[in-house]
Design a protein that fits this description.
The protein is α/β, with parallel strands linked by helices. It has one domain: Aldolase class I (TIM Barrel, Alpha-Beta Barrel). The protein contains nine helices and ten strands. The longest helix is centred in the first third of the chain and has 14 residues.
Length: 289
């Protein structure tokens, strides 16, 4: 099988750095990117945090802050492929688009459809107020138009089967151009489960010849999903945004340790790990800009 492209999701959206050791500052993000690259990652997926004292648990769409973080990563590890988040609730996407324009990364995540984002506690109460992660077609199209304008390849994040199937219609409609990649997001309580038995069917829904990966959210159970993805020829992603747990169930504070475990997962499936240069070639990024 082809070499596996490894992505590291460096930090989450709201994880409190005072509770869990996630990178926030430009220097921390750059060092985390270096650790991931040194362990085998070709791509870093980035969310960005408010840099004001005491605000590091909150996301930011300040283009100056985002550009500073991205520049620190690029200077520390020039070989890496930078993949920016554009995910935001509500119709106002001016912040993500301003950050895309400021940085012009090689890739950006595209939330490709809407999902009721839900979770219950053991007593049946809501873990947080039920929310709609709203990504209607006009919002998706606006993001795609901006990505096309600035030479950014979309990574289409799909939280449910209907969202995967929509990608073919986006192509037919002319909204979505090649190259793009597809991420199958599993483990969200109200989305697709992190159950390897689903993967043979899910991968068949991915548009023909599009590169795909699994994004598995959860604890140590996510590693069975990574093993299945490796065995079925998918690319692989982990990082402190997705999990804090290694395959043996122990907790990690390091993106590098998670990526090292992911590389071993690929190798156990008979897959070598792609270099950033090989990843660019496979994804169609070479010469995109």
């Amino acid at each position: 099988m082809e070499k596996a492209i490894l992505t590291c999701a460096l930090t989450g959206v709201l994880t409190d750095p005072l509770t869990h050791r996630v990178p926030v500052t430009p220097a921390e993000m750059a060092e985390a990117a270096y650790e991931a690259w040194n362990a085998g990652a070709s791509i870093v997926h980035c969310h960005f945090r408010d840099q004001r004292p005491g605000k590091g648990a909150l996301p930011t769409w300040n283009p100056t802050v985002v550009a500073e973080i991205c520049q620190a990563i690029r200077e520390r590890v020039p070989e890496l492929i930078l993949n920016m988040s554009t995910g935001i609730a509500g119709p106002d996407i001016s912040g993500p688009l301003a950050c895309l324009e400021a940085v012009k990364p090689e890739m950006a995540a595209l939330n490709s459809g809407s999902l009721n984002y839900l979770k219950t506690r053991s007593d049946g109460s809501w873990a947080w107020p039920p929310m709609l992660f709203d990504n209607p077609v006009e919002k998706v199209k606006a993001c795609l138009d901006a990505m096309r304008q600035w030479g950014v390849m979309p990574e289409c994040e799909c939280f449910d089967t209907g969202i995967i199937r929509s990608l073919g219609m986006f192509e037919q409609n002319g909204m979505l151009d090649r190259p793009f990649s597809v991420s199958l997001v599993v483990g969200v309580a109200s989305g697709m489960p992190a159950d390897p038995r689903w993967l043979p069917l899910l991968k068949e829904l991915v548009p023909t010849a599009a590169p795909w990966q699994v994004i598995a959210i959860g604890r140590e159970e996510v590693w069975a999903m990574h093993r299945a993805a490796a065995e079925y020829g998918g690319n692989l992603r982990t990082g402190l945004e997705d999990t804090f747990y290694l395959p043996d169930g122990s907790k990690t504070n390091s993106n590098g340790a998670l990526i090292a475990a992911l590389a071993k997962t690929a190798q156990a499936a008979g897959r070598e790990v792609a270099s950033p240069r090989e990843a660019r070639q496979r994804l169609g990024l070479a010469g995109l800009n």
